[in-house]
């Protein structure tokens, strides 16, 4: 699963990406399209539960969950019609699973805004319109071929045409597809089409150092606009976070304290992106390692085992599961078992966020 960082040019996307992925590359030049090919990187998802587990099960190493981020070049008005390098960039967005849209919520005369004025809600709408127009164009191009295929006996082809027409009508009413109610079969069909506005979205308000908590009027406007779309907002000062990311652990803690932050805002953003992607974590814990594994919300125990190794899903027999709270209360797995708190779950078990697991699988 991966998330694409998008936005208008000069909103701080690449600065944010570099900070998130701990990149120490030089900052990009101050002009549009400085990111041509998408940069990719992995970012750890901070999880306080790992420290709680290792307190009682000290391992040789700790491995947090991670997600893949893609830094996609700035989109401009008219991108759906090929303005800028629009079509190429839109194709990059088509390949990701969720969108992190960075919106500029700071004034800086030295950083040119592509529209000439700082208006984050207008920026949100510009991106949304371009993605909707791209989806309309994509569906209109695909529909004739889909209709020809639907003339045969293939039921899936008929469903695909119905879904495409449903999506076209929704987009025609100026509504993004993520707000369209679909059943499971329809959602699967839409996912296969790679439609941009069907992807979940998280807004990242890039703020000034004087508004780290995002309480200023620009961010409040973003919150209101995002709430109307059913989306979340995370305020981040990309410039400050980039500086923090460059420091060693001791200096980082001092700078965070001086800024009044308990943790980097990037940690909050990573967790929010994880949630936007519909992901959760379960843990394995032993002397060699304590590790967070990434699974979709709703995954079954065999599917979770398959994340470790595909053979584990095929040969799944059962899972032994307990919670972080069980470990803190009883302190050892032996005592958890003795207290009857070690649950034995079968193939139909739906994983809960934070489960600590042992899987028994046939060889």
- Given the helix and strand composition, which structural class is it? alpha/beta
* Cα Rg: 23 Å
Profile the largest sheet: 6 strands, mixed
| Main sheet: strand order | 2-4-1-5-6-7
Parts with pLDDT < 50 across at least 5 consecutive residues: 23-37
Number of strands: 12
The SSE string, one letter per element, is EHEHEEHEHHHEHEHHHEEHHEHHEE
Ends distance: 28 Å
**Mean pLDDT figure:** 85
- Name the overall outline: flat
Sum up the structure in keywords.
single chain; alpha/beta; three-stranded mixed sheet; 363 residues; six-stranded mixed sheet; flat
Give a description of the structure.
- The protein is an alpha/beta fold.
- Helices cover 42% and strands 20% of the residues.
- The protein is built from 14 helices and 12 strands.
- It has helices at 13-20, 48-54, 86-94, 120-149, 155-172, 184-193, 217-228, 238-245, 249-259, 265-276, 301-308, 310-314, 324-330, 333-338; strands at residues 2-6, 39-45, 61-63, 65-71, 98-105, 201-207, 232-236, 279-285, 289-296, 316-322, 343-345, 356-361.
- A 6-stranded mixed sheet has the order 2-4-1-5-6-7, sandwiched between helices. It has a 3-stranded mixed sheet with strand order 3-9-8, with helices on both faces.
- Strand 8 (279-285) and strand 9 form a beta hairpin.
- 36% of the residues are buried.
């Amino acid at each position: 699963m991966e998330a694409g960082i998008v936005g208008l040019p000069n909103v701080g996307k690449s600065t944010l990406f570099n900070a998130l992925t701990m990149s120490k590359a030089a900052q990009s030049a101050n002009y549009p399209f400085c990111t041509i090919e998408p940069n990719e990187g992995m970012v750890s998802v901070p999880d306080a539960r790992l420290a709680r587990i290792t307190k009682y099960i000290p391992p040789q190493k700790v491995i947090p969950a991670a997600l893949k981020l893609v830094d996609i070049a700035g989109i401009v008005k008219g991108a759906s019609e090929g303005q800028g390098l629009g079509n190429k960039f839109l194709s990059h967005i088509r390949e990701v699973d969720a969108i992190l849209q960075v919106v500029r919520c700071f004034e800086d005369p030295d950083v040119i805004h592509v529209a000439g004025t700082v208006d984050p809600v207008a920026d949100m709408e510009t991106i949304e319109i371009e993605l909707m127009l791209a989806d309309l164009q994509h569906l209109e191009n695909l529909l004739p071929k889909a209709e020809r295929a639907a003339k045969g006996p293939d039921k899936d082809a008929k469903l695909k045409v119905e879904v495409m027409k449903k999506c076209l009508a929704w987009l025609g009413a100026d509504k993004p597809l993520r707000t369209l109610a679909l059943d499971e079969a329809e959602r699967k069909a839409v996912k296969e089409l790679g439609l941009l506005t069907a992807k979940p979205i998280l807004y990242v308000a890039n703020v000034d150092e004087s508004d780290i908590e995002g309480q200023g009027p620009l961010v409040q406007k973003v919150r209101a606009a995002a709430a109307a779309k059913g989306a979340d907002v995370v305020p981040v000062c990309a410039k400050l976070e980039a500086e923090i990311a460059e420091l060693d652990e001791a200096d980082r803690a001092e700078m965070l304290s001086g800024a009044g932050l308990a943790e980097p805002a990037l940690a909050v953003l990573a967790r929010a992106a994880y949630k936007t992607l519909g992901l959760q974590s379960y843990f394995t814990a032993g002397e060699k390692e304590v590790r967070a594994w990434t699974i979709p919300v709703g995954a079954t125990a065999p599917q979770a085992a398959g994340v470790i190794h595909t053979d584990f899903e095929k040969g799944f027999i059962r899972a032994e599961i307990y919670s972080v709270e069980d470990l803190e209360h009883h302190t050892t797995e032996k005592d958890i078992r003795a207290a009857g708190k070690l649950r034995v779950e079968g193939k139909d078990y739906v994983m809960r966020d934070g489960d600590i697991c042992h899987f028994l699988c046939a060889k």
